[in-house]
User: Fold this.
Amino acid sequence: MKFKKNFSLKHLNTFGINVKSELFYELIDINDLPALLKKVKSENLRYFILGGGSNVLFIDDFNGLVIRIALKGIELIDKNDKYVHVKAMAGENWEDFVSFCVHNDWGGIENLTLIPGNVGTSPMQNIGAYGVEIKDTFIDLQALELETGKIRTFTKEDCQFGYRDSFFKNKGNGKYLIMSVTLRLTRKEHVINTTYGSVSEEIEKQGIKQPGLSDVMETIRRIRRIKLPDPAEIGNAGSFFKNPVLDAGHFQKLKNDYPKIPGFPAESGRIKTAAGWLIEKDGWKGHREGDAGVHDKQALVLVNHGNASGRAILSLAQKIKKSVENRFGVSLEMEVNIIDGKI
Ligand code: FAD
Ligand code: EPU
Assistant:
């Protein structure tokens, strides 16, 4: 087994933060897992599992072992008239997987195009975009319990999916290595979802009357490319905060003061509002402190203009959080996983 020492993670996190891990291992072969776990246990190593690095902010060098998931493979495990069951290994790139499915005319994840990262991470925060979440097509996943070395299957119910949330962000946090994910996708009678934002309008503009999977995918790709910064050009991890879900009274009070505040019905009569709107209204859009900044087209996205440290970005996030709380009485929760050296 080949471990790298003092390994730079700069190109393995989309914020482009220049930190090092004491030890680094790229997990390509699933058969290496028992020996890897043995090493972790016998040397009492702190470890961190890294996927595509698109939802993490490293604030220190990592004192321990970073295990980068690079397990590959896609398998058609079941098929009937209406559906396919597709299993993908955790290290498959999510966007490649979406393209592969749409290319095969398998429907259900086309709205989740251009989300960076790995397939294996998709259930962690129940990735979502443009009216669809991974839970909508999810069947199960296989994960290794790191303490016992046992492999466990988690059904949709076991995963306790919520908005940007799952068992793996709560009780299961840091305890499992997700190895593969299985989804159920449609082969015909696809459910085309163009209800979010300007998707249907954009499709109509192109003169498309009955959009197929690739029409939806291409349209959402175009919209996303305009709004969101490309990590290859400017470091970021997508939305830094979650959209807050408020009780109806609190929302109504804000609506009285700010009639244009966006509101979307959420569970139990609550209202989800847009963190990006609150941050913009509070004057932060395009703001910059050294190389740490707020994107000028999407205030929910914090960016690294070059050589910002993780701590500088975190400090900016904390200022924004405090300021939004003072002005609107809304407490923003971070979506990005903050990784210090001592996990
Ligand atoms: P990483 O950042 O590597 O890891 C995230 C967390 O998952 C870490 O805690 C890590 O330890 C854990 N983890 C990773 N792999 C495993 C594994 N195999 N087993 C156990 N734990 C694991 N997200 C959305 O939901 N919707 C969006 O529309 C969206 N748009 C984005 C746009 C941009 C430009 C960017 C940069 C990010 C966006 N994101 C979005 C966030 C991000 O892409 C997703 O959360 C993605 O699923 C993260 O995957 P990753 O492999 O990069 O995870
Ligand atoms: N808005 C503003 N100003 C801004 C940004 C947004 O006023 O600077 C307003 C918009 O005008 C719109 C509303 O906020 O009324 C929603 O904006 P948008 O459609 O851009 O989506 P979002 O709520 O900011 C969420 C997800 C994204 C996902 C999109 C599309 C969260 C935390 N973020 O963003 O996910 O791609 O919807 O579904 O739920 C991510 O998680 O990393 C991510 C990018």
Remarks:
- The radius of gyration is 21 Å.
- The longest helix spans residues 310-328.
